[in-house]
Design goal:
globular
Amino acid sequence: MKKLLLLCYFAITGIIGIFAQGESRLKDNFDFDWKFSLTDSHQYADPTYNDQSWENIQLPHDWSIKLNFAPSVSGSAAHLPGGIGWYRKAFIVPVSYRNKSVSILFDGIFHQSDVYINGKHLGFRPYGFCSIEYDLTPYLKYGEKNIISVRVDRSGKDNIARWYTGSGIYRHAWLIVTNPMHVINNGTYITTPEISTKQASVDVVTSVTNYSSQAETATLLQYILNEEGKIVAKSDNQKVTIQSKDTVNIAQQLALEFPVLWSIDNPFMYTMKTVVKIGRKTVDEYCTPFGVRTVEFTADRGFLLNGQQTKLKGLCLHQDAGALGTAVPDRSSERRLEILKEYGCNAIRCAHNQPSPEFLDMCDRMGFIVIDEAFDKWKSGYYAKYFDEWWQRDLEDMLLRDRNHPSVVLWSIGNELQEAWESSDEGVERAKMLQDFVHRKEPSRMVILSAQNNHQEKFSGVTDVIGYNYLEARMLSDHKKFPERRFMITEELPYYSGEEGNIRSYTPYNPWNIIAENEFVAGGFIWSGVDYLGEAASRESHGWPNGLFDVCMFEKPRAAYHRAMWNNKPLVSIAFLDPSLDIDHGRDLWQWPKMASHWNLPRTYVGQVIQVCTITNCEEVEMFMNGKSMGKQKVADFTNNIIMWNIPYRPGTLEAKGYNGGKEVAISKLTTSKDTDHLTLTPDRTMLKADGQDLSHIAIQLYDKDGNPVQTDDKELTVTVEGAGKFLGIDNGDLRRQHSFSGNTLKTYFGKALVVVQSLRKVGTMIVSVKLEGKEIPYTVTIQSN
């Protein structure tokens, strides 16, 4: 099956691929061999312009992440400048493509982009999160050099979102080559209107275009393949005559016997293989992964997947990855999702924009529920000046691109809209306008928007499902007033909850308790699951530090609560509370009491009574201090499954044992460490694909001479990479770093750091060396590429 998908999607054979024998479609990776300049001149669109002095780069690319921090730049942009940048790429189109259709597809350009081919302006697109496709065919020179030029404008204070977006062509680019008669990109629409254990009816509407100069009669066939690549259903042949330069939609229905349903625990994927023939010749094959499942949001039982009530254990995610910025290679996203899946998360809200297509492919494959979000604001914020002209096209492009992903269960049309506060009906009408548009274009899913504090009741009654941000108390009240409405918490505080009319009551009762206790609530999405760049609360910080994971994907002590609540495996975790901890505390409402999971306090603390907490899903916990029992306590006697202990500080070992039914089922231990003696390098992968894209994430941990992890004696690290690989970045999870993300030297934070390296497009060995402050001989790890 993997081989089939590769043939259908990723026939990558060079700068411009050449059709292999029997192939009818090519989707060629177009990420490599670009030139870049952070300057602006319209001469750059001229194909004769000499760009040899420009920087050599590959996509995805975010130019802002490597710049120096500038205090004059808003914390929303992580204090990183934008500007205007140009990209250029030279490529040769084979003469054999003269009668083909050739287009370029960008998965994302932020933002206000202009694209040129051989000096011809193909188009302008202001929105930075949509996929953008242009037809190159009329302007190409066959057998000669062609020049693609892209201007990206992220200049000015008004061109930034509330979070860090990066700047540039920050997602993949593709060159798509087809015969004149072909299925358009994203041209299949697959739904499963009737599903039983014995059979699923699979409806498919296929958009086929004819780019040739004359009418042609084509035959369309559909095959459903299972994960092993076996044909499990087949359509009847359907003939259609398509006029020159016309596109037609062809509806077909297939019967799938004994379907395997897509679910969180068993994300089974089928593939719809669409074959277009003229006579006996196959002129196009187009493959579409899809899943068979039912989704339902109800007013009384919340969310049902395949008829089973399922509580959404969700996280809100922005797309940046710390030192990598928004130019996030696929493996970085995949690693993030792997960590979140193991943690117990089953749902992702893409905040506040649609993600990359590859991200949704991963969610399909790994079993995540997804809220796909079109916009943050409507007629306020950076998109305001473009809303009236562009909202339909930007929203439709998202719907067409993402409609076949089984992971996507809701279309979000907006977040925390200023219109929600207006007493007039203008905002209500606008919300209805967007929802009606979605219902016409993609009626198989419901629509949601996220409403903020003090929103008008009438506004939150528009969409099929209403998302409340930090309004659990109001949700309970509104549920009584409007029992027909469908509710979820689209932004959930990680620790505090608020009272109705006063979200800043700082009530120490975790919002997840409210979500879990009320059957009608579909679920909740914590803001935020992972720290992110931008939306910084101070000049010292460059991002949002209140996630459960830091930007390195290192799990924080606070994350033990939701790990305990979202999993059945017995767990107990120890941390101490200290408001003087040197931690970026972020904004007030999203904080936790400052906590650390180590037992290394200053000497002046010896004998001082310290508040220690154990977060657990066990019935009881017994605490030991240097082998002496400090007693046993029941979790039911405490709020938020957090047992509080008052323990005089003495160096040594704290040990907590969790019990269910009187039986020990979990244990946690903290030991006072000595000074740093050595470090370890732990790569997540030592074998990479030699494709110039693959990554290895190397976790660094400091240890003392006894092998205890060290969190309070941070050391400077210097990274070098030799051989068949390159250095992408080093990070430590602290968003208050003083130097730019471009360097190879950084101090650990709580004894940890992360190095990211990338393969080259050649087989070989990469040697990653890390020099530890105070040590002469560097530590090394070997990564192979093949």
